[in-house]
Amino acid sequence: MKKTLVAAAVAVVVGGLGGAALAQQKPDVLVKQRQAVMTLQGKYWGPIAGMASGKVSPYNADVVSRNATYLENLAQMPWDGFHDSTKDEKNNRALPAIWSERAKFDELSQRLMSETSKLGEVARARNEAGVKQQFAAVGKVCGACHEGFRAK
Amino acid sequence: MLTRSPALAGLLFLLMAAPCFAQGDAKRGEYLAKAGGCLGCHTEEKEGAAPYAGGRALKTPFGTFFGPNVTPHPQAGIGRWSEADFVRAMREGRRPDGANYFPAFPYTSFTLIVDADLRDLWAYLRTLKPSTRPSQEHELGFLYRWRFLVGIWKWLFFKPGPYAPDPAKSAVLNRGAYLVQALGHCGECHTPRNFLGATKKDRYLAGDKDIAPNLTPTRLGKKGDGELKEFLRTAMTPEGDVAAESMAEVVKNTTGQLTPQDLDALVAYLRSLPPLPEPAK
Question: What separation in angstroms does the CA of B210 have from each of B29, B197, B207?
Answer without folding.
Answer: 33, 16, 9
